[in-house]
């Protein structure tokens, strides 16, 4: 059995299926958004809902012009990065490179490694303690690390058969209907992007991962991408999942790959 799996996996590699799919998935993704938002430039998708809604854009720009509410937290994250010796772990010693490298598929563990999972691992090695996954220190440190890569582009690579399988799982999760409302992530953030859901305008999934961790007015604090995933699952009345579980890491792998070529931004504010 194992042999058969290996043969099939190698075949996939041979015909170059692994990386071709991501490129064609992203092409279709971008084409869809181009159709519903013909006037939005590709680079502007880093701004989430503000790229597609002029009214809230003005508020956003006002906030960025003042002292953004995340500024202090991000600065603190930089101090914590040093205080806990995270610069001593090879995975994080060059913070800008670390943001650009993650998420990636680790061939040894056959798992997607996210930036936050790398921070958690390093923190535990350095301090002997566990770090949370959603808010507080992890969000501050991850935001500071990401700031060091601001202006560089997301460039998720999905190359091996294992990586491809994780990517496919993540993609399936993103498109699967679930919860009491029988909705998928794509129902809101692909097909209905730009439309209203109660008091909110739905952001396009393209560019979703460029500014996280973020400060959210509703949270009145910083949170990671997986904190937001958890919140959206709750809104869907779906079964909750823990941040950094395999299902979320795989979804992040797909989700970030769809934003390949977009700039990582330090404008970490959302309503
Ligand atoms: C019922 C509609 C709905 C569904 C389904 C939904 N979300 Fe959301 N999501 C929202 C709303 C509303 C917001 C806040 C406004 C915005 O940025 O879109 C949001 C925000 C987000 C954000 C933050 C966007 C930003 O620019 O900061 C991410 C990331 C996200 N959702 C991911 C997901 C994922 C992944 C799923 C599937 C697990 C999902 N959402 C399912 C309604 C939804």
UniProtKB/TrEMBL annotation:
Per the UniProt entry, the Enzyme Commission number(s) are: 2.8.5.2
The entry's heme c 1-binding residues are 122
Necessary cofactors: heme
Q: Where does substrate bind?
A: 228
Q: What subcellular compartments does it reside in? A: Periplasm
Q: How does it assemble?
A: Heterodimer of SoxA and SoxX.
Give the matching NCBIfam families.
Answer: thiosulf_SoxA
Protein name per the record: SoxAX cytochrome complex subunit A
Q: Which organism is it from?
A: Candidatus Ruthia endofausta
What gene does this protein come from? soxA
């Amino acid at each position: 059995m194992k042999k058969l799996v290996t043969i099939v996996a190698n075949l996939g590699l041979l015909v170059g299926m692994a990386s071709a799919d991501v490129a064609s998935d992203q092409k279709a993704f971008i084409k869809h958004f181009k159709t519903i938002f013909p006037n939005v430039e590709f680079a502007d998708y880093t701004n989430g809902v503000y790229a597609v809604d002029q009214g809230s854009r003005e508020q956003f720009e006002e906030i960025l012009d003042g002292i953004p509410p995340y500024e202090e937290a991000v600065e603190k994250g930089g101090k914590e990065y040093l205080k806990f010796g995270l610069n001593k772990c090879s995975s994080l010693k060059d913070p800008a490179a670390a943001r650009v490298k993650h998420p990636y598929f680790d061939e040894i563990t056959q798992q997607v490694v996210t930036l936050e999972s790398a921070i958690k691992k390093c923190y535990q090695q350095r301090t002997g303690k566990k770090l949370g996954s959603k808010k507080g220190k992890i969000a501050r440190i991850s935001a500071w690390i990401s700031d060091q890569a601001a202006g560089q582009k997301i460039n998720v690579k999905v190359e091996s058969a294992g990586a491809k399988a994780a990517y496919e799982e993540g993609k399936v999760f993103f498109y699967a209907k679930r919860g009491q409302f029988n909705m998928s992530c794509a129902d809101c953030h692909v097909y209905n992007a730009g439309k209203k859901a109660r008091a909110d305008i739905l952001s396009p999934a393209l560019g979703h991962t460029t500014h996280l961790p973020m400060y959210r007015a509703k949270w009145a604090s910083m949170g990671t991408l997986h904190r937001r995933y958890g919140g959206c699952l709750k809104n869907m009345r779906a079964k909750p999942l823990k941040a950094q579980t395999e299902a979320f890491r795989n979804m992040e792998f797909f989700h970030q790959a769809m934003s390949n070529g977009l700039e990582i931004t330090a404008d970490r504010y959302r309503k």
